[in-house]
Amino acid sequence: MSMAVGTTKGPKSDINITPYIDILLVLLIIFMVITPVRQQDLEVKVPQPSEDNQKNTPPPADVIVVSMSETAQLAINQEPTSITELGSKLRDIYSARANKNMFISASAKLPYGDVVKIIDIAKGAGVLDVGLLTELR
What we know:
Elements: H1 18-34, E1 65-68, E2 74-76, E3 79-81, H2 83-95, E4 101-106, H3 112-124, E5 129-133
Parallel strand pairs: 1-4, 4-5
Antiparallel strand pairs: 1-2, 2-3
Helix pairs in contact: 2-3
């Protein structure tokens, strides 16, 4: 028995995949370089108050607003409190309420972490929904 080697005649029908692998590697390198450069944070657009709503009207009595001034002074509906007492006071307020919504009014000059700390304390005290209020200028 003999084996015939190289007896095929005519065009070769194999696909040359080398250029495809080169393109794939170049794309892989491009995506690896671009990925760390992309912006990783979210841009938040805060709604601006309308012209009709320029008055500083107090919130209704059943709404709880925790406000934080530029000097980090806390108040629950204009009643001063401290960060250590905030959790227990909110727990007392929301233990008997069906409406578990709260609003936070904080100065824009405060670090974002201070507002997040208030939100965390409120969630631990049983608040379900937290809204952020903007400053009227």
